Amino acid sequence: MVGAKRSIKNVTDNEEENLSVPPGFVSLTSLTLKKIVTDPNSATERDRGPGLVGVPLRNSDLESFKMSLLQRPWISHGQFERVRHQDDSAQIGNNLKVPVGAPLPKGVIRGCENCHDCVKVTARWHPEDSYLPPLDDAPVFRPTEEEFRDTLKYIANIRPRAENYGICRIVPPPSWRPPCLLKNKEIWEASKFSSHVQKIDELQKLFSKRKGSRLHEKIETEMPKAAKIGKLDSSNECVGDSEEDSGPEFTLKSFKKYADDFKVQYFRENDTVAATGPKRSEPLIARVESEYWRIVEKPSEEIEVLFGTEVANQTIASGFPVAATPAKGTGKYSEYVKSGWNLNNTAELYGSLLPFGCYSSSTVSVPQIFIGMCFASQCWRNEDHHLYSLSYMHVGSPKVWYSIPGKCFFKFAKVVKKWFPKLSKHPELLHKHVAQLSPSVLIAEGIPVFRCLQNPFEYVVTFPGAYHSEFSCGFNCSEAVCFAPIDWLPHGQNIIEHYAGYGFKTLLSHDKLLLGAAKEAVTYLWDSLTNKSSNSKINFWRSACGAAGTFTRLLKMRVENESIRRKHLCNMPMSRPLGEVDDATKRECCICLYDVYLSAVVCSCSPNRYSCLRHVKHLCSCGWTAKEFLFRYEIDELQLLVEALKGNMKAIYSWAKNIQKLATSDKDHTRKNPNSTSLCESNGLAA
Known about the structure:
Layout: H1 9-12, H2 40-46, H3 59-70, H4 78-92, E1 108-110, E2 119-121, E3 136-137, E4 140-141, H5 151-162, E5 167-170, H6 185-188, E6 192-199, H7 214-220, H8 225-228, H9 235-242, E7 246-251, H10 252-266, H11 285-297, E8 304-311, H12 334-338, H13 343-346, H14 354-357, E9 368-372, E10 377-381, E11 388-396, E12 399-404, H15 409-419, H16 439-444, E13 450-454, E14 459-462, E15 467-472, E16 476-483, H17 489-502, H18 510-531, H19 536-544, H20 550-569, E17 575-577, E18 599-603, E19 606-611, E20 627-631, H21 635-646, H22 649-659, H23 680-683
Parallel strand pairs: 3-13, 4-5, 17-20
Antiparallel strand pairs: 1-2, 5-14, 6-7, 6-8, 8-9, 9-16, 10-15, 11-14, 11-16, 12-13, 12-15, 18-19, 18-20
């Protein structure tokens, strides 16, 4: 049965197997004694000779034999581990038309003697074997012109209705038609990008085992945790590692021709139809989708496609206009240059906390370009730090997305480990492009899966912690970016602790983000207090802060946690502040890779190695007196900051004047007594 776990129940529950073993000899048991049963039929088989050549083992005998081998301590079982992992892949592919393990015939031939960017497709679609997973659609939202003006506000308004799906689609008002700069001649015909090869027939295999995968070698080599953590520091690296090899370079124009040729040939119904014949209509999305899952689950040929993924403004510029864009005609598109729906602006909109946690070297807030063709896929993954993501389709054929709500994050991980037991030893892969498990498999495991169809000029939002995957129905160019509104903070705090527990490398500093945002909040609360003013930014922080505000509660929890760690682990004779000079450099614990922006421990034997407060004893073998405690703020100062966010006027004054060194306006001389206890009543700050 597909997905069935191996069991030893047939051994332990069998009355014949319950033979006692003398004490102390269990681990040395090599053979399992059985009562000889007189059976004429079996006697015939035994008479064949001692070798019993050609007699197939029964399943129960085979399992018993394997169990007896596992009880022999002098045998290295690494080879049996490899066998089991091969069986894991065979579980999913047991319905293949070719024997498991047999090579599939090539269905796509790329390039020829004269050129590298041509394609010959010998495979054809199999409508008789195709099927569509029975899925509910994710919600679709159509904002009015007024609603569409404020990006983060609109997403916050639809979140209660969409978050339980993990994904939603936003159809902009008809007037929203930003220019696609990718179509400019200097980009479309001249800018080149490197493509990646992707075998669709292998997507339902654990990608670390795919032929040619560098990550496969990393996993197969057993190393101490401290030596192997941090090797998978970004989803982009894993995309490259998961593919078999790099493809040729293309321009967007030449890649579109390649993609169109592939699709026309693959869905051609009659091989006798000449390539120069009348152009056939596009196949229905449902046909492409059903054929995609047939290839993934029951491949009959090896189907190879190409795709490109780039950081915007490297080899392929963003498709949205920007202020510095030299392209012709961008001046008349000023409304698009400044819009929050322009993905160059989304991550840094006021209300997105992402800039507070990023370092200069970070690309987490930079848009990513994806260039796809028919069947090109991005397998199940979630965004780094469980951030929101916003994707826009510039041009081309639709994409089909699938999503799993963030509330099922741990359940999904459990199911993936069930299908791929090797991931139990490598949990870092669960956050990456691991495998394209079928929605049918996931639904059978009790995990809800939703479908979302994205057309050109439409947006797709994925919510924190939601696993999602997608594939293209033909040539297309899309762009995506992450962002972090206030309601993301609880997700970000939880996942950063999860990362530290497994030694995952982080892309941003959560503590830097919290403190940077807190200082920004106090700045505006101070301005409100001294100038008695009000604006959108002041109102934003008033709603986020206060005694019951989300932001205040999370900072308070972090400070309490930090206080406990310092009290129990850092009674060191030597300590010094980190200082502002270190603010621009990202430093991590050498043991768990936790960001040490707020506090760290260093030893004189290795001044460039740091540990977090949880791993001080693992830093080195030097004595306690050789270690030095580094801190950015004293605990009393952090507690004062929390009180300021609660709206305590005295705390706001003390932090602003003595720690943050904010300037005092002329109006400050007539302001209210700083010994007042609350700003809540006077300025409407949430209590």
